[in-house]
Every structure is written in structure tokens, then in C-alpha cells.
Design brief:
The complex is a heterodimer of chains A (302) and B (74). Chain A contains 13 helices and ten strands. Chain A has 302 residues and is an alpha/beta fold. Chain A has a six-stranded mixed beta sheet, with helices on both faces. In chain A, strands 1-2 form a two-stranded antiparallel sheet. Chain B is built from one helix and seven strands; from the N terminus they run βββαββββ. The chains are: A alpha/beta (302), B mainly beta (74). The interface between A and B is large, with 63 and 33 residues.
């Protein structure tokens, strides 16, 4: 096998869904091209935009930040300390180290010291899985930090595998409201900053490969709370199919965007008709107070 | 060869020479869900690993990204 682009025999990765193999330099070029294409194709942001990248210390978000900086974007990082023991300590350290080495700006929000609670406590008090309080906090705080810092857009490291797995879960439950919002771009509206996913054209294996080949140190260990969660199960199921039939995840996700997503747009819009400002923090909400403030009151009053 | 595995972290000794595909099959690992790393680079499925090689089979799947799936998805 030879590199698809330069024909060198020194290949480092095969991408079966593209029926291609690449040498190191051409693979890194391929990965950046996929991001460039996603940004252009889905009109994510213009060259002069101020981008806030939500970074966790994992492969996807650090690779995304790395690529955007290399491509010349004004991209700052936002790290959210979740208070998940050793996992949070290590991921914070790796993220700070990444930023320092590249002289990049890292904004930090820490749940325990800024809000007085951590994810394990929130899970205990609400009697729900930790990923629930974690997701809610991330969505709220990313948006709040972007508004406060005057950023044009929040970029997250969701890759093709993530999006295909979420789509799979939403289809299995016919969750038409979530299906209507599953887009690589969520436009700015009613107090929500624009949100984009520039890695949708790249698989999870490509993201890990990008980090290894670029010398990016990332946290390889899984979040202890994610082990065995539903999302991982969906990914494993899709990978079993992908192994038999390369390209399935790509066809599933991009086929959905091209031929089905529009049909659910009405469901998503209907559920957001009654948006108002949270009296406590000013964030948009459909309830009396926003879900984050409700969580905060519950967790800190016990 | 020495093979480093994760979740949980452990090291196993496997006889070489052996192709990467065969190694992954022996370990019962789906090739879509891992990278095989030798030194600071990656090796592809057809590459032959020597008995003296040290490699890492690194999982690439992370479950922490499902946070965007619910609660209004914003």
C-alpha cells in the first residue's frame, strides 16, 4: 500500500472508509483539510472570528484547538474543572501544559471553587447519572463564558463517531426534538452563542492518530463516570457494523443531514417557543429558572 | 513482543514476528477502535511486528462526548 497523496510507501494509517492510506505528513494534511471543508461547507465561522474552543484535555478538543491555531484562527481554549478527582486533576494539567507550550489563551472555570459543587456530588443529590449533571453544566457554562468573553462562536470537539452515536441513540428512541437539533452548526439565537462542530468529517481513530503523529499529549484514560454509559455502547455497536462495512457511520450521519434532518426541524423549533431569561443568571430558558441554576440551588442547599 | 494495553493498564508478551491484523485478532480487539503505536509513530494492519518490538494498543473510543445529547442540546 502507498500513500494516496504522495505515493510514498511509508504509510502510517489506513482509512478504510476512504479506501486510502497516508504517510504522516499527508495524513496531517488530510485531517486539516477535512476541518477546513467542514468549516466552509457548513459556514461555521469566517477567518476573522473569535473562537472559543471547549477543551477537556482529551484527544478531540486538543487536536481541534491545535488545528485551528495552526490554520491561523484567533482561537482561545475554555477548560471546565468538573471536580472528578484524579481524572480532572490530570486533564487540567495536560490542558494548561498544551496552552503554555503554544502561548495560547486558556479561560478556566472551576465548578468546585467557582460554584461550590462537583459532578460526583451533583449526581448523588439529583440521583441521576453523572453525565447528566456534567452535560447540563457544560452546555450552560460554555455558553455563559462565550457571552461574557464576547466570542463569536463556541467550537466543540465532537467527531463523526460522536455524532453518529448520538444520532443512533436519538433514532432508537425516535427523539424527534433532539433529532431536529442534531446539526454541525447551531445558529446564534435568543441568548445562545453559535455552536459548531468542525470535526464532524473526522472519525475518532483519526483524531487519536492526529494527536500521536503531532506529538500532542492528551488524557488517554476514560472519564471514570463514562465507563459503561449508553453512548459508549452505541459506539461499539456502530464500530462492529463499520468493521464489516466501512463507511457506514459516514453514510448514516451525512445521509441524515442531507435527506432527513429537515423533517425534524419543526419539532425542535416547537419545543423552544417559550424561551425567556433566567431571573437568576440571565441565560435563556423555557422554565421558571434555568436548569443550571435549579441544579445549583439543589446541590448547594443540601 | 511486549504489548501495552489499557483499561485496565497491563502488559502482555506475545510471540513475533506477527502482522498487526493477526495481533489484534489474537487480542480480540476491533481494528476500528484502536491505534497500534510503535515508538512515536503508528503501524498499519499489514506491518509485521518483530519479536523484539514494543507496541501499544491504544483504544480511541471515548464516552465523555455524549454530554451534548440531551437537555435541549445547547
Amino acid at each position: 500500500m502507498k500513500c494516496r497523496r504522495c505515493k510514498s510507501p511509508e504509510i502510517v494509517i489506513e482509512l478504510r472508509r476512504h479506501n486510502a492510506a497516508f504517510c504522516r505528513d499527508c495524513f496531517l494534511h488530510h485531517a486539516r483539510e477535512q476541518v477546513r471543508r467542514a468549516i466552509d461547507e457548513f459556514r461555521m465561522f469566517p477567518p476573522e472570528a473569535r473562537v472559543l474552543v471547549a477543551v477537556s484535555g482529551g484527544k478531540d478538543s486538543l487536536a481541534l484547538w491545535h488545528m485551528l491555531l495552526e490554520m491561523g484562527y484567533a482561537a482561545d481554549g475554555l477548560y471546565l474543572g468538573l471536580g472528578i478527582g484524579k481524572y480532572s486533576d490530570e486533564s487540567g494539567e495536560i490542558t494548561r501544559d498544551f496552552a503554555a507550550k503554544r502561548n495560547a489563551t486558556l479561560v478556566e472555570v472551576d465548578l468546585p471553587s467557582d460554584y461550590g459543587f462537583d459532578i460526583p456530588t451533583a449526581a448523588r443529590v439529583t440521583k441521576r447519572v453523572p453525565c447528566s449533571a456534567c452535560g447540563l453544566s457544560k452546555r450552560h457554562l460554555f455558553n455563559a463564558a462565550a457571552r461574557e468573553g464576547g466570542y463569536d462562536v463556541v467550537a466543540t470537539g465532537h467527531n463523526l463517531d460522536d455524532e453518529a452515536a448520538v444520532l443512533f441513540g436519538n433514532v432508537l428512541r425516535w427523539d424527534t426534538d433532539y433529532l431536529g437539533r442534531q446539526q454541525p452548526v447551531l445558529p446564534e439565537s435568543d441568548g445562545f452563542v453559535k455552536k459548531v462542530k468542525p470535526l464532524v468529517r473526522l472519525g475518532e481513530r483519526e483524531m487519536a492518530a492526529y494527536c500521536v503523529l503531532s506529538g500532542i499529549d492528551y488524557i488517554v484514560e476514560e472519564c471514570p463516570n463514562a465507563v459503561g454509559n449508553k453512548h459508549l455502547g452505541y459506539k461499539e455497536a456502530l464500530n462492529a457494523i463499520e468493521d464489516q462495512s466501512p463507511g457506514t457511520k459516514n453514510a448514516f450521519y451525512f445521509g441524515y443531514l442531507a435527506r432527513a434532518a429537515d423533517r425534524f426541524a419543526g419539532d425542535a423549533a416547537a419545543s423552544r417557543e417559550d424561551l425567556r431569561e433566567c431571573p437568576s443568571c440571565g441565560s435563556p430558558t423555557t422554565g421558571e429558572v434555568c436548569a443550571f441554576c435549579k441544579l445549583l440551588t439543589r446541590v448547594t442547599s443540601t | 513482543m511486549k504489548v501495552k494495553l489499557r483499561n485496565p493498564r497491563r502488559e502482555v508478551e506475545i510471540a513475533g514476528p506477527k502482522r498487526v491484523h493477526a495481533l489484534l485478532e489474537e487480542l480480540g480487539v476491533n481494528r476500528e477502535s484502536v491505534l497500534v503505536i510503535r515508538g512515536d509513530t503508528l503501524v498499519t494492519g499489514d506491518a509485521v511486528l518483530a519479536d523484539t518490538d514494543e507496541v501499544e494498543v491504544r483504544p480511541v473510543i471515548s464516552g465523555g462526548s455524549g454530554w451534548d445529547a440531551g437537555e435541549g442540546r445547547r
